[in-house]
Design a protein that fits this description.
Helix content is about 10%, strand content about 40%. The longest helix is centred in the last third of the chain and has 12 residues. A hairpin with an 8-residue loop joins strand 3 and strand 4. The protein has about 160 residues and is mostly beta strands. The protein is elongated and about 55 Å long. The chain has 2 helices and 11 strands, in the order H-E-E-E-E-E-E-E-E-E-E-E-H. Strands 7-6-5-2-8 form a 5-stranded antiparallel sheet, with no helix packed on it. It has 2 domains: about 80 residues, no CATH class; about 70 residues, SH3 type barrels.
Length: about 160
């Protein structure tokens, strides 16, 4: 429920039921950061770090390994879901214990027990603004990538009645 509050601002939410898991949503050449970390210019904890601190959950491209470090690349675009250009790119090194090739995603049917607007805005990390909104589930809505895959994973489960 922490994630719900962070990304929607909603706090009066209860779990109706667990819908399932996507074992790994990463492609073969992708990795996910498992803790906040600075990407460094060399495979050494004393090497110069890039200024930006990357948060847990950021997806990066796997470039190789050397000793206790993994070489990664990160692209940030000017906007999502329809980027027009690359805002910046970093290629560097992170400790092996700060990265994983697995990114499981759990799905839950939730019930919001507070009155809300149809849509609203709230601040997020890195000066982003989230714009949550409610949308009917029938007909099945068209969502942006990768959210359409998440909905595909649990769509039929949403409508099953609990016994």
């Amino acid at each position: 429920l922490r994630e719900v509050a962070e990304e929607t601002g909603l706090t009066q939410v209860r779990i109706v039921r667990y819908l399932g898991i996507m074992d790994n949503e990463l492609a073969a050449n992708e990795r996910v950061l498992t803790r906040p970390v600075q990407i460094r210019i060399a495979p050494d904890n004393t090497s110069f770090p890039f200024k930006k601190l990357f948060t847990r959950g950021v997806t990066v491209q796997f470039e190789g390994q050397q000793g206790g470090f993994t070489k990664v690349s990160y692209l940030e675009y000017d906007q999502l879901p329809n980027p027009t250009s690359i805002a910046f790119q970093i290629i560097g090194w992170v400790p092996n214990d700060a990265i994983s090739s697995k990114k499981p995603r759990h799905f839950f049917h939730l019930n919001c027990e507070e009155e809300t607007a149809v849509s609203w805005s709230l601040p997020a990390d890195n000066n982003h603004i989230f714009h949550p909104f409610w949308t009917p589930l029938t007909p099945k809505p068209a969502l942006v990538s990768p959210q359409h895959t998440w909905l595909d994973t649990c769509y039929t489960q949403i409508f099953k009645r609990s016994l």
